[in-house]
Amino acid sequence: MSPFQIIALLALGVLLSLSGCSQRSDRVVAVVVHPTKPNIMYIATEEAVYKTRDGGKGWERLTEGLSRVRVMNLVIDPLLPANVFAGTLADGVYKSPDGGRRWLPRNAGIQKGTISANVNQIVFNPTNTQTLYAATTVGVFRSADGGDSWVERMNGMNEISFIVALAVDPQHTNILYAGTSGGVYRSVNGSKNWVKVNDGLVPEDAKLASMALGVNRLVIDPSNTSLVYAGTTKGLFKTSNKGMSWSKIGTSLGDPYVSSLVINPKRSSQIFLGTSKGVFETQDGGNTWNARNQGLENLNIRVLVIDPKNHHLLYCGTNGGGLYKSDNGAEFWDALPLTIFP
Asked: In tens digits, what is the pLDDT along the chain, a chain of 342 residues?
């Protein structure tokens, strides 16, 4: 696979055909649920952001400030949920201070020269949400003022610049992991410096190491933060020692493109995996897996989320089949149409 092909994969479909983007899209690229009011939810498609206040029965299309912007991901401030951030394709970061009614660009510093960033993921420091980190196609950036300004944080990432995923240790918030086009990097000082931690992920003699393995998602076990899972373009990996060594798990699944990964925060041995071949679940930390695709008419999964209040409730966004909901732990999925309020 050529470097250009890998980059296309790492972009998680953002370079797919733009045809039809002026109409409502059935590619659901992001889903976020309000941390304390689970009936409130936002999704992003290729052409807009939508919000529901009643668990998906009706939706409002949010356009002010985003009418020509392609949103790639969304995140809600866990401490001030009226603040919603959107990472975009080639237009940096936007912030809504009022629950999505209006969107304001927040791009000061988040670019490389004249190149605007594709923002693949935004994450908060969970204890101080004035601090945010952005994974972009031109590097890692950090904001210490609630997203108003950004500073590049790439010291130690000498081989790569394409950052796809970030994760902050919820118990030790100075520890971060970055998923890149060349494996995983770790910082122990709030992103000031990074060290490559690829033992078991990428061979030492890998040719073109900067493009050796695309890491799409990183998730830290909330009950034992030494455990970290990496969803990649070539399957699922796990570390039990903060990234010092990795092993491949889920080998019965083959080598699927893993686009999304969620852990049940109350029972961390239960993990759901979104892949190019559907949804899979493990209840034993990754030793055994079962398909959870009943009701899904499209198995090309873009995003999975679990409701923060009801861990039997999950949402699934697909690449071309719209949005689905399961209220029984992914045993069965129901389509959730984007019915727009008048």
From this structure: 444 444 444 444 433 333 333 356 689 999 999 999 999 999 999 888 999 999 999 999 998 988 667 899 999 999 999 999 999 988 889 999 999 999 999 988 887 766 677 999 999 999 999 999 999 999 999 999 999 999 999 999 988 889 999 999 999 999 999 999 989 999 999 999 999 999 999 877 665 666 667 899 999 999 999 999 999 999 999 999 999 999 999 989 988 999 999 999 999 999 999 999 999 999 999 999 999 999 999 999 999 999 988 999 999 999 999 999 999 999 999 999 988 876
Cα–Cα distance for residue pair 287/249, rounded to 1 Å? 7
| Residue with the two structure tokens 């980059």 | 7
Is the four-CA dihedral 112, 116, 121, 127 of positive or negative sign?
positive
CA distance linking residue 262 with residue 279, whole number of Å:
11
Contact 143, 131 (CB under 8 A): yes
Task: Kindly tell me the sign of the dihedral angle through the C-alpha atoms of 254, 321, 314, 246.
Answer: positive
In angstroms, rounded to a whole number, what is the distance separating the alpha carbons of residues 56 and 64? Answer: 21
Q: Which residues contact 17 (CB under 8 A, 6 or more apart)?
A: none
Residue type (1 letter), 163: I
Task: Return the DSSP state at 149.
Answer: B
Strand partners, 230: 218, 237
Between the alpha carbon of residue 53 and those of residues 34, 39, 334, the distances in Å are 10, 5, 18
Residue 328 burial (C-beta neighbours within 10 Å; 0-12, 13-18, 19+)? exposed
